[in-house]
Amino acid sequence: MIVNSLSLCYHNKLILAPMVRVGTLPMRLLALDYGADIVYCEELIDLKMLQCKRVVNEALSTVDFVAPDDRVVFRTCEREQSKVIFQMGGMGAALLSDPDKIEKILSTLVKGTRRPVTCKIRILPSLEDTLSLVKRIERTGIAAIAVHGRKREERPQHPVSCEAIKAIAETLSIPVIANGGSHDHIQGYLDIEDFRQATAASSVMVARAAMWNPSIFLKEGPRPLEEVMQKYIRYAVQYDNHYTNTKYCLCQMLREQLESPQGRLLHAAQSSQEICEAFGLGVFYEETTRELDARRAKLLARSPEEAEEPAEDTSGIIKMAIKFDRRAYSPQITPKMCLLEWCRREKLAQPVYETVQRPLDRLFCSVVTVAEQKYQSTLWDKSKKLAEQAAAIVCLRSQGLPEGRLGEESPSLHKRKREALDQDPGDPRTQEPAMPGELCKKPFVALASGQESPLEGW
């Protein structure tokens, strides 16, 4: 777990535990509002994060980590800076059976980042083995260890072992965070301190009790569930949370009230708007979405010079403000074909296209490399193919070459097309040549990530 602060303290803290599908940005912000000191994100697989691109989302004022399929894997904002803990690794307690791997992972993280690293475990079948493991973990140099006082196979209905957590806390010199008390021990704010004392832990991590009502962190006592759910929905809409995740978290809060009229409306909801309407927030949804749309429109209205550019060194790129208009070109000949034919005739390597997508409006921009020179249109287009054609036009025009416009066809390409029409349509030679060097990198990364950590910067 990589912590978003160099000085985060783990003593006497109230902590929102990592929970799959629950610990997304709206829930983390809600927990902070109600008094949590530290919030964990849901458990994320490291391989997924390696596939993501870091995107600064100006419309939402967030930093997003976006997968190749455009799904936001992790979203954070300045409000939780220095309070959010990013959790990654094997699912559940999978690593408990491989202490060598645990030690290697933790040692690598501690040595490879300036940010504090923590670890969360369950207890082993024997106390002796558990203490041996945590001592080994402590030697890696981690800043704190969270202990769920149940064995790997045990479920919430099994009693949590306060004794095991206490034995660990008395053995180690680093802070120990107690976890697992929601079922038997924690029903209200005062119970959190009682659980901490029973385990001799430095801090307490709350999971299901906070999932049911995040205001459990309030010293004054929990707020009415209806109020809490409405506040959660507001965060979900403001930060464009996917409605399925919003719906899931609200269902966990409603619990036995799922069969109520409001619960049935929630169950039937198929969009964020319908969820808002079920909770009397229809006007809020309309106002907020209008505000977000206006913000996005303002960002899109910026001049090409102000608009985002690919997150790479663009020096030396030849640029023109060009769009590819299909109506101005022969249906048989495209600028890409003209550029490829010219490269072949000049005995140059095939053109290489690098195409990126901008998350804000999902438009594309392409850079084509020919003979080690890059060419790009400054205008973004609605598809990868159109963006690549525009880049090809920039290259052709800068070289004074024909680009396939009507009345301007290249004789060699015209001849090649006539020959192709005489061939068997199923012959692969009649198809447009493949572009082995083509790349599509999406979505577009607004700001490059830091060298040390994918969370560098926020």
Automatic annotation (TrEMBL):
Gene3D superfamilies: 3.30.160.20, Aldolase class I (3.20.20.70)
CDD domains tied to this protein: DSRM_DUS2L (cd19871), DUS_like_FMN (cd02801)
Protein name: Dihydrouridine synthase 2
Pfam family, one: dsrm
Annotated stretches, region: Disordered: 403-438
Gene source species: Moschus moschiferus
Domain of life where this protein originates: Eukaryota
Cellular component terms (Gene Ontology): cytoplasm
The DRBM domain, residue ranges: 335-400
